[in-house]
Amino acid sequence: MTTDQINHPERLFPSNPVIRGITSELYQTVRNLPIVSPHGHTDPAWFALDEPFTDAFELLVKPDHYLVRMLYSQAIPMESLGFTANSDAPANIDSRKCWRIFAQHYHLFAGTPSQLWLNYVFSEVFNLQKRLNESSADLYFDQINEHLRRPEFRPRALFDRFNIEVLATTESPLDTLKHHETIRRSSWQGKVITAYRPDPVVDPDFEGFAANVEKFGHITGEDTASYSGYLAAHRQRREFFKSMGATSTDHGHPTAMTADLDKAACEALFNKAIHGTCSVNEAELFRAQMLTEMARMSLDDGLVMQIHPGSHRNHNHRVFTKFGRDKGADIPQSTEYVKALKPMLDCVGNEPGLSIILFTLDETNYSRELAPLAGHYPCLRLGPPWWFHDSPEGMWRFRRQTTETAGFYNTVGFNDDTRAFLSIPARHDVARRVDCGFLATLVAEHRMGMDEAANIAQQLAYKLVKKAYRL
């Protein structure tokens, strides 16, 4: 390996030569499998309009909160990263200048998954083999931008080049899904579907909640001033999302708390929510009730339910107030599942026709709570390491702590959960390498045969995710 090489062919393989050899053999069987990306936050407008991406900075840095948070942690002002205070005025960004700041500080990402993903993008997508730093910043910026002007680097062409079989975006119930409609009407064969993310109309703490619920009623024609009409609006909107390809819902609640209240209590709580009079505990109780309601609806309409709890979102009040959401200030917090999920599981936990995928930002409960729960309840599956733990070490910890209790088949493979479109193949490649390394260790220790490991590698890379998300 030369000092300038940024992508070693055996990166992430175990250092033990025997295990490394087995890992390499397993990896060759899955490296070229199609990518199934069942949950993420890429912009459907990219694939609907198929316009060239703007430039290297706007595509690779500005929308990536992993990058933004690290740079901000080193006292680089948000304004230097292309962000302006909340305003209707268009931002006037010098993308080259912002890219140079990023390149000058690229060393900050040493040892992080962001560096792994970006090095893959630089090398495999744009054929850049020198390391990114201050002296190579302009070379990178110019070469990436030159590539982005070519037809083969437009969104649909890259989607096909990346061998993506299906990609799910995530939209609010208030979204018209017009871009998904445009994709469906086009002659392009790429499969881009939506997912139902109801946070703006189920979280009383979400900014503009009451206005959102009112708009929800206008969109659906339901009386969302009443609890029954509000639930009917959800059912109607879920059916619309299904008609646009959705197979899943997604719920980004602060905790995993669920509830099963009687009708009168639900109506009273809803009335407080839409009038902005909920206490902190009542807002949490309303969200808890809505998780159970969403699970019941999933039993009816077949949508897979994803629960993504445990993030204190927009922790930095100053950044949130000035620059808005998703600027890298979401912080993991401890999360309890056993007591929190019991009301919902008492209602639907024994239904094999229901699929609920659990995620966590609190790794302390992998073996204590999540693996035992998924190892028992027919409706539960474990989502892959998520967000802060979407990393090689996070993936190893996940397999080590969950496999003995939940096995492999109560997990759902990998999803990338990203806004960074070009990082999707890089992220899936990392997951495939790590899973093959884990399986190779079991083979080397004679705990599993090579044929069984090869089959499980295929399951983890491709088959389990299709089954879990009903794709």
- Helices, by number, come to 20
Order of strands, main sheet, comes to 4-5-8-9
Number of domains: 2
* Helix/strand class: mainly alpha
CATH class descriptor name of the largest domain: Alpha Beta
Strand content: 5-15%
Helix content: 40-55%
Can you tell me the CATH superfamily of the largest domain? Metal-dependent hydrolases
CATH architecture level-2 label of the largest domain: Alpha-Beta Barrel
Q: Could you describe the largest sheet, including whether it forms a barrel?
A: 4 strands, parallel
Overall geometry comes to globular
What is the number of E strands?
A: 9
Order of H and E elements: HEHHHHHHHEHEHHHEHHEEHEHEHEHHH
- The CATH topology label of the largest domain is TIM Barrel
Poorly predicted parts: none
Amino- and carboxy-terminal Cα gap:
40 Å
Mean pLDDT across every amino acid position? 95
Question: In a nutshell, what does this entry contain?
Answer:
With 471 residues, the chain is mainly alpha-helical. 49% of the residues lie in helices and 6% in strands. The strands form three sheets. The protein has a four-stranded parallel beta sheet with strand order 4-5-8-9, covered by helices on one side. A three-stranded parallel beta sheet has the order 1-2-3. A two-stranded antiparallel sheet has the order 6-7.
